[in-house]
């Protein structure tokens, strides 16, 4: 199968021919280069209408001279997301060509193409995908027929966030390569590792979501204040890419996946690639970054995915082929994958750390086996048996140490570990005072970034979700189905978050991994059969990203983060999400739920 791909979502007019049999791809691109400032939508559209026919013709001519008159089996085009006027030009050209050549039309989601090209090249079966492009920044993972958004920017795309600064400085689009070159002047000297070179900029991650609006403005302010532009560029990269690397690691940890692929134009940046590579190496995950010509916008990725879709029969009738400027990656039914398994691999044995922890517990040999290590996304957790903990504390304890992250600038790393250790200690206790079950905090060692905490629960909610019906059924006494057990657990998480918000702070990272679930004995009520009864207690842990805030938006984000982690990993997310929101409604404010719906529906392509 040979597919003609056409790309033109914003700045790059491009056509490509991909031959699925030989694997060869020929790409012809013509970028729009504004004389000043950023992308002007009207100019970009004008560029597309001139350049698209040209690049298509070049590729078609080459195809015909190589393969003869019936060179093309399908025409694939990027349907969105992107700038409407640009997309319309591409759509019109693609429809006309599919008619003229009498071959099927394939509508490709540009963001899914950015991620599939890495999967295609690497041969990874089920990676977490980081899309770092101009107008977007997503973490995606395949689950139950779609690429789910595990995390994403809450405002600007990563490239746009950087370009906003370069526009302020007066540099032309694209700004990313210029920032990289300027930053290299700092990191090229050994001053790079020196704390003095790193400007303090906002670092905002919320679970696997993140925000760049504050950092762009702070970088602009630093420039206006006379900070050297190289140092701003260096600090901007260190912060922005560390945020992306951190959320990628959290996604690997949440899903249990051990493969990461990179996509998008910002992926051409060496420092970002280096950070991701370092992070993956440290946790034993495989990492793949495609060749730069497949990272920046190009029609090769459209043709490669187009060929897979066409082979799966996933083609479009002309009347259904409208473009979609807000086309989200999770709207695309994935028809072309033969591997149906989910990116979420918890409980299948590929994720050693949590698995062995739970085995240890279920065999009831925590005390006899002794100490046990676990490595989460940011900390190493030691479970210490009761008789060896050297205290009078009855029951196992955990020592949780935030380990240095080699990928991060040392000064940034130190301050994050310190801040989060302090926040966790403080908010874990505050939450308990607000009536939310949390571990007792026995000791805080701020310089060592280490907390000593009570061991709570038996397993995390992520594992309970994966366990499905079988797991909970016989462990909960009167409860018939584990499904009900998980529903009750998520409802209580809703109540817990409402209480935190009522007390004036957010958890910051309420994913299913940060909820522990354990049985608790309750007294037998009169007339009830059976010798005893237990019910579940759900604890919130890991308050390191929490902070005090009364903003409805921040409260809604907490709910969004939790729902994101459920949607990405649960088999029947809708029921769970309803229960979670019911729980929140019981104790929280309706305005927060209204805002949550707004956050969810927000188009983020700016
Ligand atoms: C919707 C679609 O039009 C859009 N595509 C897009 O933004 O082009 P893409 O090629 O994926 O990414 C361009 C961005 O990539 C940045 N970029 C290019 N080289 C870079 C580098 N060396 N370091 C940092 N950023 C770089 C540019 O500054 C620009 O912001 C998208 O994928 O979001
Ligand atoms: Fe792109």
UniProtKB/TrEMBL annotation:
GO biological process: tRNA threonylcarbamoyladenosine modification
Catalytic activity: L-seryl-[protein] + ATP = O-phospho-L-seryl-[protein] + ADP + H(+); L-threonylcarbamoyladenylate + adenosine(37) in tRNA = N(6)-L-threonylcarbamoyladenosine(37) in tRNA + AMP + H(+); L-threonyl-[protein] + ATP = O-phospho-L-threonyl-[protein] + ADP + H(+)
Record's cofactor remark: Binds 1 Fe(2+) ion per subunit.
Compartmental location: Cytoplasm
Its EC number(s): 2.3.1.234, 2.7.11.1
Organism: Halorubrum glutamatedens
Domain Protein kinase as annotated: residue spans: 340-606
Keywords carried by this UniProt record: Acyltransferase, ATP-binding, Cytoplasm, Iron, Kinase, Metal-binding, Multifunctional enzyme, Nucleotide-binding, Serine/threonine-protein kinase, Transferase, tRNA processing
PROSITE patterns: GLYCOPROTEASE, PROTEIN_KINASE_DOM
GO cellular component: cytoplasm
The protein's enzyme class: transferase
Protein role: Required for the formation of a threonylcarbamoyl group on adenosine at position 37 (t(6)A37) in tRNAs that read codons beginning with adenine. Is a component of the KEOPS complex that is probably involved in the transfer of the threonylcarbamoyl moiety of threonylcarbamoyl-AMP (TC-AMP) to the N6 group of A37. The Kae1 domain likely plays a direct catalytic role in this reaction. The Bud32 domain probably displays kinase activity that regulates Kae1 function.
Composition-biased stretches (Acidic residues): 354-368
GO MF term set: ATP binding; iron ion binding; protein serine/threonine kinase activity; protein serine/threonine/tyrosine kinase activity; tRNA N(6)-L-threonylcarbamoyladenine synthase activity
Region of interest (Kae1), ranges: 1-336
Family membership noted in the UniProt record: In the N-terminal section; belongs to the KAE1 / TsaD family.
Keyword check for Signal: no
Binding site for Fe cation: 110, 114, 297
HAMAP family: Kae1, Kae1_Bud32_arch
Official protein name in the record: Probable bifunctional tRNA threonylcarbamoyladenosine biosynthesis protein
Subunit description: Component of the KEOPS complex that consists of Kae1, Bud32, Cgi121 and Pcc1; the whole complex dimerizes.
Residue numbers binding ATP: 373-381, 400
UniProt region (Disordered), positions on chain: 323-376, 466-485
Residues engaged in binding L-threonylcarbamoyladenylate: 131-135, 163, 176, 180, 269
């Amino acid at each position: 199968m040979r597919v003609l791909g056409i790309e033109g979502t914003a700045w790059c007019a491009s056509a490509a021919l991909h031959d699925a049999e030989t694997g060869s791809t020929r790409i012809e691109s013509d970028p729009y280069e504004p004389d000043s400032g950023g992308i002007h939508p009207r100019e970009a559209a004008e560029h597309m209408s001139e350049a698209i026919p040209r690049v298509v013709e070049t590729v078609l001519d080459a195809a015909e001279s190589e393969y003869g008159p019936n060179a093309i089996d399908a025409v694939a085009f990027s349907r969105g997301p992107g700038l409407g006027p640009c997309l319309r030009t591409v759509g019109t050209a693609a429809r006309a060509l599919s008619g003229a050549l009498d071959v099927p039309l394939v509508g490709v989601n540009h963001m899914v193409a950015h991620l599939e090209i890495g999967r295609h090249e690497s041969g990874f079966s089920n990676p977490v995908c980081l899309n770092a492009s101009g107008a977007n920044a997503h973490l995606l993972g395949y689950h139950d027929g779609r690429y789910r958004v595990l995390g994403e920017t809450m405002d600007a795309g990563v490239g746009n966030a950087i370009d906003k600064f370069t526009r302020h400085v007066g540099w032309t689009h694209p700004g990313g390569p210029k920032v990289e070159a300027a930053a290299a002047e700092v990191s090229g000297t050994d001053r790079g590792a020196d704390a003095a070179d790193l400007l303090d900029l906002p670092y905002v991650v919320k679970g696997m979501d993140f925000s760049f609006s504050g950092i762009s403005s702070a970088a602009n302010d630093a420039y206006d204040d006379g900070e050297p532009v190289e140092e701003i560029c260096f600090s901007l990269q260190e912060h922005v890419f560390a945020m992306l690397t951190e959320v990628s690691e959290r996604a690997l940890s949440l899903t249990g996946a051990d493969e990461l692929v990179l996509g998008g134009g910002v992926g051409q940046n060496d420092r970002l690639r280096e950070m991701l590579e370092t992070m993956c190496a440290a946790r034993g995950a495989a990492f793949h970054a495609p060749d730069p010509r497949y990272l920046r916008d190009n029609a090769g990725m459209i043709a490669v995915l187009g060929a897979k879709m066409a082979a799966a029969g996933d083609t479009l009738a002309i009347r259904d082929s409208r473009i979609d400027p807000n086309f989200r990656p999770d709207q695309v039914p994935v028809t072309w994958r033969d591997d149906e398994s989910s990116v979420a691999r918890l409980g299948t044995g590929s994720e050693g750390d949590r698995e062995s922890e739970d085995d240890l517990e279920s065999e009831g040999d925590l005390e006899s086996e002794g100490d046990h290590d676990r490595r989460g996304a940011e900390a190493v957790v030691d479970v210490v048996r009761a008789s060896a903990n050297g205290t009078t504390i009855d029951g196992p304890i955990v020592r949780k140490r935030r380990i240095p992250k080699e990928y991060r600038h040392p000064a940034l790393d130190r301050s994050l570990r310190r801040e989060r250790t302090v926040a966790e200690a403080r908010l874990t206790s505050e939450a308990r005072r607000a009536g939310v079950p949390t571990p007792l905090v026995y000791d805080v060692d701020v310089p060592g970034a280490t907390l000593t905490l009570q061991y709570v629960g038996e397993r995390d909610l992520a594992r309970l979700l994966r366990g499905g019906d079988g797991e909970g059924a016989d462990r909960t006494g009167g409860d018939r189905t584990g499904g009900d057990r998980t529903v009750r657990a998520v409802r209580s998480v809703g109540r817990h978050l409402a209480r935190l918000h009522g007390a004036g702070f957010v958890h910051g990272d309420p994913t299913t991994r940060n909820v522990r679930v354990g049985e608790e004995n309750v007294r037998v009520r009169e007339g009830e059969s059976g010798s005893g009864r237990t019910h579940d207690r759900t604890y919130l842990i890991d308050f390191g990203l929490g902070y005090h805030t009364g903003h409805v938006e921040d409260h809604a984000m907490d709910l969004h983060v939790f729902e994101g982690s459920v949607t990405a990993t649960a088999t029947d997310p809708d029921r769970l999400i309803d229960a979670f929101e019911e729980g929140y409604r019981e104790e929280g404010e309706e305005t927060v739920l209204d805002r949550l719906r707004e956050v969810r529906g927000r188009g983020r392509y700016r």
